[in-house]
Amino acid sequence: MSSSSTHHHLPTSQAYDLWSQVYDTDGNVLQQLDDIYITTVLPPLITPNSTVVELGCGTGRNTLKLVEYGAGRVIAVDNSRGMLEKLVEKLGGGDERVEVFEVDLNRFYSDTTSSSTGGGSDGEEKFRKTLEGIEINGVISTLVLEHLPLSTFFSSVSKILPPTGWLLLTNMHWDMGAISSAGFLDTTTGKKVKPVSINHTKEEILEEAGKWGFVVEGGVVETGVRDLEHARGLGRRAEKWVGVLMHVGVVFRRV
Ligand SMILES: C[S@@+](CC[C@H](N)C(=O)[O-])C[C@H]1O[C@@H](n2cnc3c(N)ncnc32)[C@H](O)[C@@H]1O
């Protein structure tokens, strides 16, 4: 991966391994907009004792909300060990409602890693076995889509989620993606660390979702930093984003 005087481009899991040290504390504006959306939209989706799969759970920002809102079983996956370690720390001695697996979504559903070929990591094998014979009510994936090809993401969800199940998806908005991408300032090197990122437009997302049988339920919600007063409430890093749409959230239903 490439490096310049200001940026360090790394494979996604390596970038997040580094980011994990400050991911929960670096005042990320997108995470705050995500919190506002998730705390509104997620609770009504959770039926008592429902089973939810979380793709790209990271440090568990939303994993813990799933449990708090009443999910009976949460199966959370990510391919950054650093991010997962933070989630495991938050779970303390463990929570029997939450299972955590190290899984690379870019490989998991490709033919070459099927159990018949013996491919895949230990975490992927365990995740595959865990999914066997259980009914999943919903899938959540927040701020992950920009790191994956759309076909990889939606084909994976279509294999996990039965018809009538819900998918709650959030991502960096395409307007923000046109001028920026995920990354963080590594204070030890002074460089911006950048994982692999793809800017997906609204049309591309909805078209690919439709191919895999996902229909939008309740509309596509696009938000950003409205004005300086709004920015002040979101912290010092928000001011430069005034007027830019930064976050998109959508609930899909699999038909
Ligand atoms: C911006 S973080 C979001 C984390 C969490 N969902 C949240 O909202 O705070 C993106 C996450 O996606 C994960 N991710 C990216 N590509 C992935 C892949 N191919 N397989 C599994 N996880 C991936 C990263 O490791 C990281 O934890």
From TrEMBL:
Classification via Gene3D superfamilies: Vaccinia Virus protein VP39 (3.40.50.150)
GO MF assignments: methyltransferase activity
GO biological process, any: methylation
Methyltransferase listed as a keyword: yes
Domain Methyltransferase residue range list: 52-108
Entry keyword annotation includes Transferase: yes
Any matching Pfam family: Methyltransf_25
Regions that span the bilayer: none
UniProt KW keywords: Methyltransferase, Transferase
Name of the featured protein: Methyltransferase domain-containing protein
Organism: Arthrobotrys conoides
Lineage per the UniProt record: Eukaryota, Fungi, Dikarya, Ascomycota, Pezizomycotina
